[in-house]
Amino acid sequence: MPPAASTFPLEGGCDCRYLRYRMETAPLFVHCCHCHWCQRESGASFALNAMIEADRVTLLSGTPDLVDTPSESGLGQQIARCPKCRIAVWSTYAGSGPIVRFVRVGTLDEPELLPPDIHIFTASKQSWVIIPATIPSVPEYYHCESHWPEESLTRRQVILPLIAAYRASLLDRRK
Asked: What is the full DSSP assignment across 130-172?
């Protein structure tokens, strides 16, 4: 069950508190990703990311370092890290660029308010990780239309043209 709208905004940041941010609204969806890339990058058995429009995340203090990092897609991602304590607070992926952020739920002051909406890439999850039967899980990725709530699908329609424009700008730069 998604958190109530009254739960937001939520604040978070890095360990040393140099970077602080605020999620102004509920995320589009929360992924618990079990792919080997997320396991390696997080140093844990999975990564828990709240997918949200970048303009709904307000940077309250500090300036993150954007670190180009490889991804399984081959297109890479940028991880926003604190330049002091090096904690990752969010990522952006090549597919949606700077339009969508994948906020690390563990960096929220109250991470328990954003449990996963879905477990993805469970084909590569650690065998000892037990996924509750009440939470959807898929062996790889999924179609948004099959799992996202109506409000998130409506918000997605607003950002799709922005993502398309971003992708077109990448193609223009390559010419």
From this structure: ---TTS-B-SS---HHHHS-HHHHHHHHHHHHHHHHHHHHHHH
What DSSP state is assigned to residue 14?
-
What does the pLDDT read at residue 20? 98
In the β-sheet with 118-120, what is the strand arrangement from edge to edge? 65-69, 77-81, 88-93, 100-104, 47-53, 29-33, 118-120
Which of 54, 77, 58, 57 has the alpha carbon at shortest distance from 67? 77
Q: How much is the average pLDDT of 111-134?
A: 96
CB 29 within 8 A of CB 138: no
Q: Give residue-wise pLDDT tens across range 32-86.
A: 999 998 898 888 999 999 999 999 999 999 999 999 887 776 677 899 999 999 9
Among 18-22, 39-43, 44-48, 114-118, the range scoring the smallest mean pLDDT is 39-43
CB 141 within 8 A of CB 95: no
User: Cβ(24)–Cβ(12) under 8 Å?
Assistant: no
